[in-house]
Amino acid sequence: MEIRPTTDEDLEVFVDTVHAAFGRFPETPLEGGGLWWSALDMDRCVLALTADGRPVGTAGAHSFELTLPGETIVPAPGVTAVGVLPSHRRQGVLSAMMRHQLGELRARGEFLSVLLASEATIYGRFGYGPATYTQELTVPRHRAAPAPLRASATTDAPVTGAAHGSVEMLRSAGCGEILEEVYDRYRRAQPGALSRPHRWWALRAGQPPISPAPRYVVVHRDADGVPDGYASYSLGEPETTLTVDETIATDATVFTALARFVLNHDLVSRVVFKHVPPRHPLRWQLADFRAGKVSGDMDWLWVRLLDVPRALTARGWFADGELVLDVEDPFLGEHGRHLLTVRDGKADCVPTDREPDLSLDVRDLGSVYLGGTAPSTLVHAGHIRAHRPDAATLADALFRSDRAPHCLHWF
């Protein structure tokens, strides 16, 4: 078997192969673009070929940026289009491609990679761990009355529940530049968020509101008229359901204003908010707390660390302390013991012979890296071993994020 990089001339073969791996056929091209593969970086893709040159596997990577806790922005290849033909599964093709790809990422100087897992049982063995989570929130419109305003817990001022500014209803086909600019401002401050390169918007590749699929968009503008949030939505399935693809807001009051707009939409029986962060305050803003029904609670972004010291020193930190981490990387056959020292928001990570505080797999380190999974959760689950009683508590304090990590981008 040969694994080789692709060029632009390989696009058709690559697309046909990955679709065949999943038993599908490429969609009919849509007017104005919209095909997800049009945004592929073909110089970051590979084909697995049999001895006689037949393609049997694919893997690719997008060039993204990832926002870490502390608003640090780093390169993050987004692994995508991974597939093996059914006739060649369980023959080592996938493992060979993943090992090849991780080597290529390291050769480029990248210290982490991310992906969205089609199945939760596949990518852990390659060192990826779930790091952000998302859910859907459904609100019947007849139970969507807002909760009475109450005084702030820290001041005598009332909670406004809405931003100062205005909302404007547009169609997605005519407001791409606004959406791109607002999303970029949002993702730079949101831990766990990925960039959406300009070519995605220009090619209209991806899911709504990027794709050509018709959507209405409500844009929020601040008091100076500057766009600072949007919600993309459609009606249907059934026709009285309003589904919000994504809500992008630079602060909580903007989100509230956008939510109130869609919840007040006429001729709608219920509103479904897709991709809501866990523990989002929207349910608390309803007079009937039980009106908001959570569903679709699932993992989203998976993280894989390729250089543990570089990754740990890249992010921001919000507590001081020291931990010795004993990290196994079974897939790459590597092992390292690292002294993590955090002072004043910065970390130092060096090799050490000291006894470990925590022993863990690299996939578990990927899960806790963004602050979306508490180390103590994985200790209780039997994945991380704590060697002293307070190690998990200290790790929870160190790895927490200033904001819960969340990723909306599909790739």
Structural class estimated from helices and strands: alpha+beta
Named at the architecture level, the CATH assignment of the largest domain is 3-Layer(aba) Sandwich
Oligomer type? single chain
Computed CA radius of gyration, to the nearest angstrom? 23 Å
* Poorly predicted runs: 153-163
Helix content: 10-25%
Describe the main β-sheet briefly: 7 strands, mixed
Number of strands: 19
Mean pLDDT: 94
Beginning-to-end CA distance, first to last residue: 28 Å
The CATH superfamily of the largest domain appears as Gcn5-related N-acetyltransferase (GNAT)
Strand content: 25-35%
The level-1 CATH class of the largest domain: Alpha Beta
Order of helices and strands: EHEEEHEEEEHHEEEHEEEHEEEEHHEH
What is the CATH topology of the largest domain?
Aminopeptidase
How are strands sequenced across the largest beta sheet? 1-2-3-4-5-14-6
Tell me the count of domains: 3
Number of helices: 9
Walk me through this protein's architecture:
This protein has helices at residues 11-21, 93-107, 176-189, 198-203, 252-263, 308-314, 362-368, 375-380, 391-399; strands at 2-5, 46-49, 55-68, 72-84, 112-116, 129-130, 133-140, 166-171, 216-221, 227-235, 241-249, 270-276, 293-299, 301-305, 321-329, 334-343, 346-351, 358-361, 385-386. It has 411 residues and is an alpha+beta fold. The radius of gyration is 23 Å and the shape is globular. Belongs to the acetyltransferase Eis family.
